[in-house]
Each structure stands twice: as structure tokens, then as C-alpha cells.
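Supplementary Methods S3. Complex input for the zinc ion-bound model.
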Amino acid sequence: MTQPSPTVGQVAPASIHADRAAGRLEIGWPDGHTTVYDTTMLRWLCPCAFCRGEAGMPGWLDSGPTLTAEQTRLVDIALVGGYAIAPTWGDGHHTGYYTYALLRQRCPCPECTERRHAGADSVDVGTRHEAHA
Ligand SMILES: [Zn+2]
Ligand SMILES: [Zn+2]
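Predicted complex, serialized as C-alpha cells:
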């Protein structure tokens, strides 16, 4: 695994739109790409120490919990220091800082999913992505 995970994600989104009613988070990137997460997916990505674990200890999400409606209900989103967003969830959880890099890297759209799968044997995924757009 020598592939650098380069400039993708270093940039701040051009727009962030939380549609609480629809349960969606829409992120527009400066290169024109749009990333859409549903809130359940976003909750599963929570990168905080409690959910992910730390120092080799498994986190809460690693135990495969059944998420309740409250736990996947997006209440609010705070911008953190120009590099991340911190959603507040219906159960009060708010300690996950989702960096822009993470949000871009984990983009669930078909194009990015395919790019991640191809990543194992391809080094110029960046240019490929742009060429497609
Ligand atoms: Zn968390
Ligand atoms: Zn994408």
C-alpha cells in the first residue's frame, strides 16, 4: 500500500446542505462533485473515539449496534475550524468530527465507490475521477 491518498479531500466544500426532513446531507465540492449521505450512513461513519474506539479498543459502532431513529436523526451541524463538521444527533451525540477529507473519501456515489474499488490496482485514480467529471 504505497498509494498516497493525495489532494482529494484537502479542500473545503463549496456548500453543505442538511435536509433534516429528508434525512440527507448534501455536500457540494469545488470541483463540481456532489456527495450525498443519508443520515444513517453518516451516523455509521462517526469517527469519534466512543464510536470508533481508540488505542486498539473497539468502539461502540464496532459492536454492531442497532441504531434507533433518534440516533440517526440529524439535529444540527456545526462547522469545526474550517476542516470538519460536527453533527448533533437526536440522542445528543455530538463528539464526532467528520473531516472534509473523510466526507470526500467515503462519498457513497457510484462513481466514488467504483474509484475506491479500483484503487487497489490503480495509482492515477485522481485524474481518472476528474476526467470522468
Ligand atoms: Zn461518535
Ligand atoms: Zn462521489
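The CA atoms of residues 44 and 65 lie 10 Å apart. The pocket of zinc ion (ligand 2) is lined by residues 33, 35, 107, 109, 111-112 (CB under 6 Å).
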